[in-house]
C-alpha cells in the first residue's frame, strides 16, 4: 500500500476486529463510531455495551493492534464511552418502559445473603458509571433502607401522581420499608402484596436506567409471578451458598424462572470462603465450589464468588456497603468482578439472545 491512507482502508481494518465474547464485528455491533483519519492519525470513539465491561482493556487493545498494523499509522486516539443496550423481551403492559434492563435477584431460601449481594451489586454497577436503581420487593422483610443508610419517606414528583425514588451512593431506591415504622409488621394477603409491588414498579418515577435490580423475597410466590408478568426481565440472578441444602433450593428458583421464560443470567456463590484477617489463611467454611459445579451441570453461567467476611456484614448494618466503605479491598473487588460478569452476560444476550454462556 502506498500513498495517503484512506478512511475506507481504516474501516476495512476495523471491520476485522471482533468482540471477544460475542465474536461479532465491533462495527456490526455499532461499537466503533466517529472515525476520523488525518495524515496518519486515527481518532475514534469506542462505545462499550456496558460501563462495567470486564474486557474493555482487551477490546481497546484489539482496535489499536488492527490500526497500528496499517502502514502509515502514526497515532491512534480512542475515546471510551458506553451505551447499555435494552433487553428484547417486550410486554404489552410494561410498567418500566424507560428501564433498559431489569434483573431479578433471587434465592431459593433465606439466610444466604441475597439482599447484601443485591445492595453491593447495585452500588458496584453505579460506581462504573451506569444509571442504576434498586427495588426492595421483599415486602415482608424490607432491608434495603437499613443497608443503604436511608430512612426518609419518599415525596411525590411535582406535577404528577408518581413517587420520587430516594437515592444513596448513586443508586435510586424504593422499598415498602420507607413507608413503615421500624417495628410495624406487614400482615398482608397475596393480592395486597401484588398491588404494592405494581405500585413500586409503575407509580415510581424511576427515570432512564441502565439497570434496575429487584431484590426478591426468598423462595417462589406471588411477588415473583407479578414481576415476571409486569416487567420484561432481562434475566434473573440467583444467590446461593455452597452447601447442598442451599443448592437444592437454588435449583427450584432456577426451575421457576425457566418455567416463566425468564433467562437465568447466572448464579453467585455467597459466603464462599473465609480469609483470616490476621494470617490471611483461606478457609472454606462451607464446601467451597458447590455453586460452580452446579452451574456446569445446569448449564448456567457462574458469576463469581463472594467471601464470608465480617466487614461485608458490618457494612449492611451500618448503611455503608463494603464497595463504598472499603472500595480497594479484596471483598469489594469480588463484587466488582461479579457485576462485570453480570453486565457482560446481559450484553451478550442482547446481541445473541439464544446463547448459553458457561464460565
TrEMBL record:
Belongs to the Mrp/NBP35 ATP-binding proteins family. GO terms for molecular function: 4 iron, 4 sulfur cluster binding; ATP binding; ATP hydrolysis activity; ATP-dependent FeS chaperone activity; metal ion binding. ATP binds at residues 108-115. The keyword Iron applies. Keywords: ATP-binding, Hydrolase, Iron, Iron-sulfur, Metal-binding, Nucleotide-binding. HAMAP family: Mrp_NBP35 (MF_02040). Binds and transfers iron-sulfur (Fe-S) clusters to target apoproteins. Can hydrolyze ATP. It comes from the Bacteria. One of its GO terms (biological process) is iron-sulfur cluster assembly. Homodimer. The gene is apbC. This is Iron-sulfur cluster carrier protein. Residues 8-79 form the MIP18 family-like domain. It holds the Pfam family ParA. The keyword Metal-binding applies.
Amino acid at each position: 500500500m502506498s500513498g495517503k491512507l484512506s478512511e475506507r482502508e481504516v474501516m476495512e481494518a476495523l471491520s476485522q476486529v471482533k468482540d471477544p465474547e460475542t465474536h461479532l464485528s465491533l462495527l456490526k455491533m455499532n461499537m466503533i463510531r466517529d472515525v476520523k483519519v488525518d495524515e496518519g492519525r486515527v481518532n475514534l470513539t469506542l462505545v462499550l455495551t456496558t460501563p462495567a465491561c470486564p474486557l474493555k482493556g482487551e477490546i481497546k487493545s484489539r482496535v489499536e493492534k488492527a490500526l497500528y498494523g496499517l502502514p502509515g499509522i502514526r497515532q491512534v486516539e480512542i475515546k471510551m464511552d458506553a451505551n447499555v443496550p435494552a433487553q428484547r423481551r417486550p410486554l404489552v403492559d410494561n410498567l418500566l418502559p424507560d428501564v433498559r434492563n431489569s434483573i431479578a435477584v433471587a434465592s431459593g431460601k433465606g439466610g444466604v445473603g441475597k439482599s447484601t449481594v443485591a445492595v453491593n451489586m447495585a452500588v458496584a454497577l453505579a460506581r462504573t458509571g451506569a444509571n442504576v436503581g434498586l427495588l426492595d420487593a421483599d415486602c415482608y422483610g424490607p432491608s434495603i433502607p437499613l443497608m443503604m443508610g436511608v430512612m426518609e419517606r419518599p415525596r411525590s414528583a411535582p406535577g404528577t401522581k408518581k413517587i420520587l425514588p430516594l437515592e444513596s451512593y448513586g443508586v435510586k431506591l424504593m422499598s415498602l420499608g420507607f413507608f413503615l415504622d421500624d417495628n410495624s409488621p406487614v400482615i398482608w394477603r397475596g393480592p395486597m402484596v401484588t398491588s404494592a409491588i405494581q405500585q413500586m414498579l409503575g407509580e415510581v418515577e424511576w427515570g432512564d436506567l441502565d439497570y434496575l435490580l429487584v431484590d426478591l423475597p426468598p423462595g417462589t410466590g406471588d411477588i415473583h409471578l407479578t414481576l415476571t408478568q409486569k416487567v420484561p426481565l432481562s434475566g434473573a440472578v440467583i444467590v446461593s451458598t455452597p452447601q447442598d441444602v442451599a443448592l437444592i433450593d437454588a435449583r427450584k428458583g432456577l426451575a421457576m424462572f425457566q418455567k416463566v421464560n425468564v433467562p437465568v443470567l447466572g448464579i453467585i456463590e455467597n459466603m464462599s470462603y473465609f480469609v483470616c484477617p490476621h494470617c490471611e489463611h483461606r478457609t472454606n467454611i462451607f464446601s467451597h465450589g458447590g455453586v460452580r459445579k452446579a452451574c456446569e451441570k445446569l448449564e448456567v453461567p457462574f458469576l463469581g464468588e463472594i467471601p464470608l467476611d465480617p466487614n461485608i456484614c458490618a457494612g449492611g448494618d451500618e448503611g455503608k456497603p463494603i464497595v463504598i466503605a472499603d472500595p480497594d479491598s479484596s471483598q469489594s473487588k469480588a463484587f466488582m468482578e461479579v457485576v462485570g460478569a453480570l453486565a457482560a452476560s446481559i450484553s451478550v444476550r442482547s446481541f445473541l439472545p439464544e446463547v448459553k454462556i458457561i464460565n
